[in-house]
């Protein structure tokens, strides 16, 4: 039986998810990446061009609970060492609780917090191997004690919600030796990180995803719930 590790990355057809798919593939992992129906998956498919057997594709919109059944079906008997919930949105540009509509709140909370944790809970039985680990793409903006400058209210609230729900999942799974990692990828050059090219990000995509992959490989199986950045620095909750 192959000793290669297996990862499922939710939201992997562009941005950091695509970069992570390439990173883990290059590190010798089997990778299943997800997209939404209708997405262009050419770049994700190209990740597996050297060894197509190590790259799988599945589909899910993280806001749609009924899509989890479809995902489960398409995964068949597959099991994973790591499940990485990467999909996320910045949300309404105004980012203001004063301006937010119920639809905007629902969209960002379902995409960034409820949806990912619901999928993780449904799929956690697929975690196997000596170091079963669930990762969530968090943000330093999720830190309550680190929020000294204010702003970005909707995004911060959604990622803080993701962190607390990740902690609840960890608590519920603790007896089964699961590890949960909440990771800040740095302010990275993607569609989201540059607000679609209108602002400068701090780091390039490669620096971000290579750091995040190293953090996962270092801490997977530690049986803790950690909040770390892509340089392996702990963040304050
Ligand atoms: N870039 C940064 O500086 C930064 C910093 C901190 C945290 N993050 C986090 O890192 C993660 C990836 O961000 P990114 O910068 O790579 O953003 P991005 O380039 O905008 O990519 C976002 C990804 O999430 C997917 N996604 C969005 N809504 C979805 C939904 N409802 N269902 C399924 N997939 C969905 C997108 O798929 P579609 O193509 O189908 O929309 C895409 O694959 C996010 O969770 C983000 O909050 C990013």
Helix content estimate: 25-40%
Give the helices and strands as they follow along the chain. Answer: EHEHEHEHEHEHE
- Distance between the first and last residues' Cα: 40 Å
Give the distinct bound molecules. NADP nicotinamide-adenine-dinucleotide phosphate
How does the helix and strand content classify structurally?
alpha/beta
Overall spatial form: globular
Structure explained in plain terms:
With 237 residues, the chain is α/β, with parallel strands linked by helices. The chain is built from 6 helices and 7 strands; from the N terminus they run βαβαβαβαβαβαβ. Helix 4 links the parallel strand 4 and strand 5. Helix 4 (102-123) packs parallel to helix 5. The longest helix is centred in the middle third of the chain and has 22 residues, at 102-123. The chain is globular and about 50 Å long. Residues 11, 13-17, 36, 39, 61-63, 86-89, 111, 137, 139, 184-185, 187-188, 190-193, 201 line the site of NADP nicotinamide-adenine-dinucleotide phosphate.
């Amino acid at each position: 039986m192959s000793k290669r590790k297996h990862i499922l990355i939710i939201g992997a057809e562009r941005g950091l998810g695509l970069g992570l798919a390439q990173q883990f593939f290059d590190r010798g992992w089997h990778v299943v990446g997800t997209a939404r129906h209708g997405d262009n998956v050419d770049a994700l498919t190209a990740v597996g061009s050297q060894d197509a057997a190590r790259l799988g594709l599945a589909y899910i919109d993280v806001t749609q609970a009924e899509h989890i059944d479809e995902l489960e079906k398409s995964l068949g008997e597959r099991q994973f060492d790591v499940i990485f919930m990467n999909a996320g949105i910045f949300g309404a540009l105004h980012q203001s609780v004063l301006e937010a509509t119920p639809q905007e709140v629902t969209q960002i909370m379902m995409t960034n917090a409820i949806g990912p944790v619901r999928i993780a809970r449904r799929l956690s039985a697929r975690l196997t191997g000596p170091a079963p680990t669930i990762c969530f793409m968090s943000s330093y903006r999720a830190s309550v004690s680190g929020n000294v400058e204010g702003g970005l209210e909707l995004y911060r609230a959604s990622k803080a919600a993701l962190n607390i729900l990740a902690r609840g999942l960890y608590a519920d799974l603790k007896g089964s030796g699961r590890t949960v990692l909440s990771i800040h990828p740095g302010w990275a050059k993607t569609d989201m990180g540059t607000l679609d090219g209108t602002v400068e990000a701090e780091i390039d995509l490669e620096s971000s995803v290579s750091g995040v992959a190293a953090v996962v490989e270092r801490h997977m199986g530690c049986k803790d719930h950690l909040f770390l950045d892509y340089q392996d620095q702990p963040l304050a909750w």
